[in-house]
Design a protein that fits this description.
Elements: E1 3-5, E2 12-14, E3 16-19, H1 29-41, E4 46-48, H2 57-65, E5 74-79, H3 94-108, E6 113-118, H4 127-140, E7 143-149, H5 153-165, E8 171-175, E9 178-179, E10 183-184, H6 189-196, E11 199-200, H7 226-229, H8 239-253, H9 259-268, E12 276-279, H10 283-290, H11 299-311
Parallel strand pairs: 3-4, 3-12, 4-5, 5-6, 6-7, 7-8, 8-11
Antiparallel strand pairs: 1-2, 9-10
Helix pairs in contact: 1-2, 1-10, 2-3, 5-6
Length: 312
């Protein structure tokens, strides 16, 4: 397993991180803990979760799994998505962030969070209020680094500007969706992160499992698969997906690899990427996904794959 700096910070994270949004949803406690332990045994040191994942259950499972090995790991969690129907149980206000971080710390069974992330942009809260609160958490030692998730390039730049002008702790990372099928959530993020030294943490590298080979053109998702369980994401199963698979799969197979391995390795080959979030329901899936970390694409190969994807 290789490790990279998280953006321009001094923190090192494994090039593949473990996503935990299935924990407590489609993965029960024992299975979730087995997935976490398998990832750690294979060199993964970054585990990404959020308070909203199964409304705290994911954080609880992560907390149970990391007992006795906490200081060897980088734990990231998020705040900002609606947690209940109470008016102040959502967003990035000082009140919600301060109460949420205490709840996350308790569920995770730790006294600090390595990477605390604003889960989504909150237009209803003054940005300076949000950023000063994150800075307070860093100064208090409850949080060591801060990042944002699902922010556009202009929102990221705005935040960094406010942080710099007020001597506040800066964002070190941004976590967007990025995969072959949908592209980068905001194409402007890549050059922005290159300029500002912010690490990109892509999630959904396999497009909610659409790039795993489990699906067939014109057929409904098989029962028990991720897209069968999440009807809102089934729209991804269009002609472009299968056209893309037909174009890119031979490129991977000619080099002795699978399409999922290529999808992850291609993201790792992007110089702005610090770690790629890969989820799993079962331990064997972790082992399969980690094979991507052993495949290093050259810049020329990376660009060749990019051209193939863009041709579809």
């Amino acid at each position: 397993m290789d490790y990279r700096q998280l953006g321009s910070s001094g923190l090192k994270v494994s090039v593949i991180g473990l996503g935990s949004n299935t924990f407590g949803a489609t993965a029960e406690e024992a299975g979730s803990i087995e997935v976490i332990n398998t990832a750690i045994e294979h060199g993964v040191n970054f585990i990404d979760t959020a308070d909203v994942y199964s409304f705290g259950t994911s954080e609880e499972y992560v907390g149970k799994a990391i007992k006795g090995k906490r200081h060897d790991l980088v734990i990231g969690t998020k705040v900002g998505i609606t947690m209940s129907d109470k008016p102040n149980d959502a967003g990035l206000s000082r009140g919600h962030i301060m109460s949420s971080v205490e709840a996350s710390l308790k569920r995770l069974g730790t006294d600090y969070i390595d990477l605390y992330q604003a889960h989504t942009f909150d237009a209803a809260t003054p940005l300076e209020e949000t950023l000063r609160t994150f800075d307070d958490l860093v100064r208090q030692g409850k949080v060591r680094y801060i990042g944002c998730s699902n922010w556009t390039a202009w929102q990221l730049a705005w935040g960094l500007g406010v942080q710099k002008s007020n001597d506040l702790a800066p964002w070190v990372s941004v976590q967007p969706e990025w995969n072959f099928v949908n592209g980068l959530q905001d194409p402007h993020l890549q050059p922005a992160c290159r300029e500002f030294g912010v690490g990109i943490i892509p999630y959904m590298p396999l497009a909610a499992g659409a790039l795993t080979g489990k699906y067939t053109r014109g057929e409904a998702p098989p029962p028990g698969t991720r897209l069968a369980d999440r009807p809102r994401t089934r729209r991804i199963l269009g002609d472009r997906l299968f056209d893309l698979i037909e174009v890119v799969t031979p490129w991977a197979e000619a080099r002795g690899h699978t399409l999922p391995e290529l999808a992850i390795a291609w993201l790792i080959a992007q110089p702005e990427v610090s770690t790629v979030i890969v989820g799993a329901r079962r331990a064997p899936q972790v082992v399969e996904n980690l094979k991507s970390a052993d495949w290093t694409l050259t810049p020329e190969e990376r660009d060749e794959v990019t051209a193939l994807v863009e041709s579809v």
